[in-house]
Amino acid sequence: MKLKDKVAIITGASRGLGKAIAIKFAQEGAYIAICSRTDNIFTVADLLKVSCSKCHAGKLNVSNYLEVKEFVEDVYKRFGKIDILVNNAAILGERTNIVDYPIDIWEDVINVNLNGVFYFTHEVLKYMIPQGSGSIIMVSSSVGRKGRARWGAYAVSKFGVEGLVQVLADELKDTGIKVNSVNPGPLATRMRKQAYPNEDQSKLKKPEDILDIFIYLASDESAGITGMQFDAQDFKLSEIQK
């Protein structure tokens, strides 16, 4: 129960990695607030209630600032604090060259993957800073650390997220709030299938296989760890504890 009585917001939790994180956090004793722009978020909430004594779900678009603000305010009113934010919600967009990239899809990807992260972080900090504690975990990508052809807006948005981590870690270094990024690596998810439609996903790890890093960063074990980049599939808690 490493997260006992902590309040965690997880975005994009209707499926894949976000759903797996929410389930694991609940098993570790956290109170959970999840959101997605699909109705499946309420199905996940019903699943969570088996192991979570307090769970809240909201259907919203993370790229809509007013919807984000209302959701975060509601979470605080319900739980009285916010300890953890996992910025997981993201969309892939197009796998094509920049010169061919559709303008409307570019804007949508940047709005969800970068502006949405900013909106949630902006609002959550209003509560974490007075508390003097908190953990913000940004879900990143390898293409947000080294750009590759035909990853377009997705890669650029993740570069932006990595930059935001660095800015925040410096701004918040004396507040007790830690901000880190996690690259999940190749996972058997719907987004991965969209990016690599011909890949054999049976050879990939599942989201449930890489959750140790998220528990570590969300828990008090990682006190003082901030501004860092982690690769989930290379993380070994036993090495950290030596």
TrEMBL record:
PANTHER family found in the cross-reference section: CLAVALDEHYDE DEHYDROGENASE, SHORT-CHAIN DEHYDROGENASES/REDUCTASES FAMILY MEMBER
Protein name: NAD(P)-dependent dehydrogenase, short-chain alcohol dehydrogenase family
Transmembrane helix in keyword set: no
SUPFAM superfamilies assigned: NAD(P)-binding Rossmann-fold domains (SSF51735)
Species of origin: Kryptobacter tengchongensis
Keyword match Oxidoreductase: yes
Family recorded in the similarity comment: Belongs to the short-chain dehydrogenases/reductases (SDR) family.
InterPro entries linked to this entry: NAD(P)-bd_dom_sf, Sc_DH/Rdtase_CS, SDR_fam
CDD domains with a match to the protein in the record: SDR_c
Keyword field: Oxidoreductase
Domain of life: Bacteria
GO molecular function: oxidoreductase activity, acting on the CH-OH group of donors, NAD or NADP as acceptor
